[in-house]
Specification:
With 765 residues, the protein is of the alpha+beta class. Helix content is 34%, strand content 19%. Among the domains are: 182 residues, Rossmann fold, CATH 3.40.50; 140 residues, no CATH class; 146 residues, Valyl/Leucyl/Isoleucyl-tRNA synthetase, editing domain (Isoleucyl-tRNA Synthetase, domain 2, Alpha-Beta Complex); 63 residues, Ubiquitin-like (UB roll) (Roll), CATH 3.10.20. Strands 8, 9, 10, 11, 12, 13 and 14 form a seven-stranded mixed sheet that branches. Strands 2-1-22-23 form a four-stranded parallel sheet, with helices on one face. It has a four-stranded antiparallel sheet with strand order 4-3-7-15.
Length: 765
């Protein structure tokens, strides 16, 4: 037998799997479908350690499900539009398309090196016209239903990149790419009325779907449904165009305790206040994102200089401006009751404002209403590398959708995409100028592009029929494969991607394209691998770990196994260069164990195995299978290590034991198990086409149990007890007292006995 050299065996089996179509998805009605999916990656150019951690455990899970008899659908693609590619292209002097597709080619080769069972036959690349054609189709359908509209909205604005940013693209108040300080700016843009689906997006308490509690609660809090009342406070200034402040409150009975009002910096009233101190405060507030304003417990504010009348008490109360009030909450104005509200009390105490008592019986006039924190989704961007908005602007007809038969509106290649303060597509006159499809008068295309979250809100549907041309997806294929059975991804997408995906699914159902309400039955969110210094990996900190270096030294199987073993899938922990060598040694021991197979030429007869050998094997089968089902990958690997220690301690191993070990290890380390499997079974099919072993419950309980016997805490003997008797303390004590080793220690009597059933018996003398 040769020594274990990962560099030699891994490329060989990757080529074999590709040539023989081992992982190609084939419809099999005899098997239950299992749609296993990881969020599609962005083509950055290299598979970094984050990609390995995101994809390796789900790959092990997919392999396990396939060996367990499921018809596993495991596709992948690339979320290839977006600002990062555009900025990288500007920096390097290369076109975003060329940069993106070169990176995709590189990353697909790296995925192959990882040894995944991804079926690339269903690949989707969101920057392909064949894909974004259906982005445009969906947008037009939303426009026809009144869900897509053009309007002004307060947005995160990067003054350098000259574009609107999603909350996810802001880090510590700065643009994630260029580092410029992001400001809040009212920008005219395309929006989607996700608010019309607010009630349907709220997770019910009794949902049968297996999504993390923190995701469901996080989305419900973000939607923020509250029932209350709109109350009007008359402004005591006749010169203002706005004469009343309309305030939303969930506690109208406290109106007599309102001692001041607070309005958001973006409130329309502030445009009528000219004082410099007010405008300076508003300008400073514009530099904070909405999330920062929500989380900041430090109260700041400025007095507007004006008052309003309390409709219950008739008293005039001051109007303040503070960034802890959000423009999107109700009317952007709140009534402050410091007597009954802690946040209002903090503000009142800081600025020495009155605290009035409320008797909770006030009954103001007002209108009952329901308020939501959720705002409509801004989907247009003033950048180049994205899906062109499929609308045409005509002086006579206003805004007209591009006819569906003319889709896709392709993104032109030769465009100056550097930031110029206007959308880059507006500079391409040949592309921009068209005839109005309604009146044939001269018109212009919309020069903005769609947010990339639009692309990723429905890509998993396209995987089911990537070449379908009659619609965004084949409805028959969707019935066969959807919903997704398990969807792996990052926790950072709780309030963005997964919420938008749920919105799209409900819209598709309204169109009659699908017959379910939620796109995924289970959501699994992974943790983060930190740098060796315990800090999040970053090139600026010089703590980035390149997995390719470890693949070259140890092989992909070692990296895969270590990633599954190093911590729970949901945890966050630092990478350790030294610990990975232990996993490599484990695989070498698995390899070398071939030499111990008892009667190498025999069949799978195992009549001569002892009860302990059966116990060890079936306990390992149960533990590994259960843990792969519940995504406890680290403890599954630990169970394999424990069993290997047992097998290695024996003079010989049975063929059944070794083959079972290989099958249990196969989901984690596909290359070495394939190599050894064919070494001991030259004419066999791929090990990945084998069935996952099944445990027998009767063998997961030992016939006898060894119990440690202590006297005054010191080990003096061990005895074997029938496993059916271990709960009977009296029986165990009597058996122990017959031990010659114990008799001499307890001959003068026993003061007390401490028993841990099935483990330890301690005599106190």
């Amino acid at each position: 037998m040769n020594k274990y050299f990962a560099k030699e065996i891994e490329p060989k089996w990757q080529e074999y799997w590709e040539k023989n179509g081992i992982y190609k998805f084939k419809k099999d009605q005899k098997k239950k479908k299992y749609y296993n999916l990881v969020e599609l990656p962005y083509p950055s150019g290299d598979l970094h350690l984050g990609h390995w951690f995101a994809f390796t455990p789900p790959d092990a899970h997919a392999r396990y499900k396939r060996m367990s008899g499921f018809n596993v659908f495991y596709p992948n693609g690339f979320d290839s539009f977006g600002l990062p590619a555009e900025n990288a292209a500007i920096k390097r002097g290369i076109h975003p398309k060329d940069w993106t597709y070169k990176n995709i080619e590189t990353m697909k080769k790296q995925f192959e090196t990882m040894g995944t069972m991804i079926d690339w036959g269903s690949e989707v690349i969101t920057s392909d016209p064949e894909y974004y054609r259906w982005n445009q189709w969906i947008f037009i359908k939303m426009y026809e239903k009144g869900l897509a509209y053009r309007g002004k909205a307060l947005s995160n604005w990067c003054p350098v990149d000259q574009t609107v940013l999603a909350n996810e693209h802001i880090e510590q108040g700065k643009c994630w790419r260029c580092g410029a300080e992001v400001i809040q700016k009212e920008v005219e843009q395309w929006c989607l009325k996700i608010t019309e689906y607010a009630d349907r997006l709220i997770w019910p308490e009794n949902t049968s779907l297996d999504w993390p509690k923190e995701v469901k609660e996080g989305q419900n809090n973000w939607i923020g449904k509250k029932e209350g009342m709109l109350i009007k406070f008359r402004i005591q200034n006749s010169e203002f165009r706005i004469r009343e402040l309309e305030v939303f409150t969930t506690r109208p009975e406290t109106t007599d305790g309102v001692s001041f009002l607070v309005i958001a910096p973006e409130h329309p009233l502030n445009k009528e206040i000219k004082e410099k101190r007010v405008q300076t405060y508003i300008e400073e507030a514009s530099k904070k994102t909405e999330m920062e304003r929500k989380e900041d417990r430090t109260k700041s504010g400025v007095f507007s200089g004006f008052e309003a009348k309390n409709p219950v008490t008739g008293k005039n109360i001051p109007i303040w401006i503070s960034d802890y009030v959000l423009a999107g909450y109700g009317s952007g104005a709140i009534m402050a009751v410091p007597f009954a509200d802690e946040r209002d009390r903090e503000f009142a105490e800081k600025f020495n404002l009155s605290i009035l008592k409320t008797d909770f019986k006030a009954k103001p006039e007002g209108k009952k209403t329901v308020n939501y924190h959720l705002r409509d989704w801004s989907v247009s961007r003033q950048r180049y590398w994205g899906t062109p908005v499929p609308m045409i602007h005509c002086e006579k007809c206003a805004v007209v959708p591009v006819p569906l038969e003319d889709l896709p509106v392709e993104l032109p290649y030769k465009v100056d995409f550097t930031p110029k303060g206007k959308p880059p597509l507006a500079s391409d006159e040949a592309w921009l100028n068209v005839k109005c499809p309604k009146c044939e008068a001269p018109a212009k295309r919309d020069a903005e592009t769609l947010d990339t979250f639009f692309d990723s809100a429905w890509y998993y549907y396209r995987y089911c029929s990537p070449n379908y041309e009659k619609g965004p997806f084949d409805e028959l294929k969707i019935k066969e494969l959807m919903p997704i059975d398990i969807y792996f991804g990052g926790s950072e997408h709780t309030l963005g991607h997964t919420l938008y995906a749920r919105f799209f699914t409900k819209f598709f159902k309204d169109l009659g394209l699908v017959n379910f309400d939620e796109f995924a039955q289970k959501r699994a969110q992974h943790g983060v691998i930190l740098g060796p210094d315990g800090v999040r990996m970053s090139k600026s900190r010089d703590n980035v770990v390149n997995p390719d270096d470890f693949v070259k030294e140890y092989g992909a199987d070692t990296v895969r196994l270590y990633i599954c073993f190093m911590m729970p899938y949901t945890a966050t922990a630092p990478w350790s260069d030294s610990a990975i060598s232990g996993v490599y040694k484990f695989l070498k021991r698995v390899w070398d164990l071939q030499n111990k197979i008892k009667d190498h030429k025999s069949n799978l007869k195992s009549e001569n195995m002892s009860s302990e050998e059966f116990y060890q094997m079936h306990s390992a089968i149960k533990k590994v299978g259960d843990d792969l089902d519940t995504l406890n990958f680290n403890t599954a690997v630990s169970a394999l290590m424990i069993w290997l220690n047992f097998l290695s301690s024996k003079k010989d191993v049975y063929r059944l034991e070794y083959e079972t070990l290989l099958k249990l290890l196969a989901p984690f380390a596909p290359h070495i198990t394939e190599e050894v499997w064919h070494s001991i079974n030259p004419s066999a099919n791929s090990i990945h086409l084998e069935n996952f072993p099944l445990y027998q419950a009767k063998f997961t309980v030992r016939e006898t149990v060894q119990i440690i016997i202590q006297v005054n805490g010191k080990i003096r003997d061990t005895i074997e007890i029938d496993s059916s008797k271990i709960k009977d303390q009296s029986f165990v004590e009597n058996e122990t007292k017959n031990s010659e080793k114990i008799k001499k220690y307890i001959q003068n009597g026993v003061k007390n006995t401490i028993y841990v059933p099935g483990k330890i018996l301690n005599f106190v003398v």
